[in-house]
Amino acid sequence: MTEELIRDQCRKRKIQERLWAAKDPSLQEAIDMAKVVEELQRCMRELERKDKSADVMVLSTDAIGAQQEVGALSKKYVFLN
Fold first, then answer.
1. Long-range contacts for 13-17 (Cβ within 8 Å, ≥24 apart)?
2. By C-alpha distance, which of 55, 60, 12 is closest to 33?
3. What gap in Å lies between CA 50 and CA 79, rounded to an integer?
């Protein structure tokens, strides 16, 4: 697959997600949660690279708790730099 084709597929997927979310508000919450989880995973990978002894745990599965944990991880990441 070419980069252009991959970008087009990503755009189409994002548009489709928006359409589904417009029809079902609970789906928007699921999409938002998936984005939060992706951000948490990214932060955890960064922390692991920076500090091999970092013991990072996701303690809650609700969106608000996860967002707070992303903020805490981001602060820790900045501190480690």
1. none
2. 60
3. 11
Q: How many residues does the chain have?
A: 81
Residue 40 near residue 66 (C-beta atoms within 8 A):
yes
Q: What is the DSSP letter of 24?
A: -
51/31 Cα distance (integer angstroms): 30
Tell me if 70 sits within 8 A of 36, measured CB to CB: yes
CA-to-CA separations, 10 to 4, 6, 37, 45, in angstroms, rounded: 10, 6, 19, 23
Q: What is the DSSP letter of 62?
A: S
Q: C-alpha angle with apex 35: 12 to 22, nearest 5 degrees?
A: 55
Instruction: Tell whether pTM > 0.70.
Output: no
Write out pLDDT tens, residues 24-71: 767 677 777 788 888 888 877 777 776 655 454 444 445 556 666 656
